[in-house]
Amino acid sequence: MIDANAQNAQHGEPHGNPSMAAGRQEPQQQPQPQPQDGRAEANENQDFYAVIPAGGTGTRLWPLSREAKPKFLYDLLGQGRTLIQSTYDRLERVAGQGHVTVSTGWRHVAAIREQLPQLDGNDIFAEPVPRDSTAAICLAAAVWARRHGERVVVGSFAADHVIRGAASFARAVREAVATARAGYVTTIGIAASRPSTAFGYIHQGRSLAADVPEAPSARLVERFVEKPDAATAQAYLSTGEYRWNAGMFVMRADVLLGHLREYKPRMYDAISDIADAYLAGGDAVDEAMATHWSGIEKIAFDYAVAEPLSVQGGVAMIPGDFGWDDIGDFNSVAALLPSANQQNIKILGDREDVSYIDSAGDVVVPAAGRTIALLGVNDMVVVDTPDALLVAPRARSQEVKNMVTHLRQEGRDELL
Asked: CA quadruple 375, 380, 381, 386: dihedral positive or negative?
């Protein structure tokens, strides 16, 4: 059984926004020693605060994950920490205690508090309805700007990603923070190991090392591109100029909110009112949420801020040379699990609950407390839960979400 609880221009100046010009005033630089441990690392980033957007509808790993229990609440690697716990751990090592918060839906607050008891009442932004990443990130930035000063650096890192290589991740985040201090909205681009059609890409431009000495690997972003077809993805890789877009963003609060005001003024006004309510406390937050939140535009941060700003030269990228996966389907899960036998069967759960003869390449999730017997079954996904069983070819793992849509159309909401 799987335990969900254990578990302006030629010299790099961003332009096109008057607030950005002001935001690009260079802070006085101080020598920063290389951290020797997590505490030293956090000490040099005292102006850095990280938000973990924890959303999702449980469609890509259904029926294991559901609307009420998305994948970030599970230990999908069998390491004793769930995805959100692991995300919190690595961010706290960089940002420091009290500098990491979670933005999530109301229905997930209790489970997150159980898994992350170190969070206090100010460390969770609870959303009555999903409004995608722009609203989540900008609300956290607006609240932190009011609490800690408008030049604090804000980072957003998804709750359900797997990162391998903690030291490399920390180095990338440190460079992203330094680049953000210089006035750029900064993303971390993942080295593309294959011509994937499942991810968006970042086209990197010239080096920013001369502009941001503390971030020698920083590059200007030429543009963001959507998920390509296979031929285009292969062409991207052949240039050596493209990286995967993992949706990690780091920027100063004043810079971010200035761009939000320019691109999405109605959202800016609503976010500002809600952030003011967070400072007032009491019932003010609930009242402001009831007044504004449901009317906020539902839009991803890439579309609302990053993509239009990249055209103006205001986005930078730090190469992330660490292992990364967004666990987008059961094939992704399988790639992270050890093989149970020489036939490359992958089991997420108790191996004693799976028996097999003449079977190979399967992904099996025994989550119903009963035995799964495979006879002559090859390259299939079998996910057994108490109320739903999924059997599908591994090659169609990306289509599991279509099954969820089908069940919803049939009125089977109790399974979702």
From this structure: negative
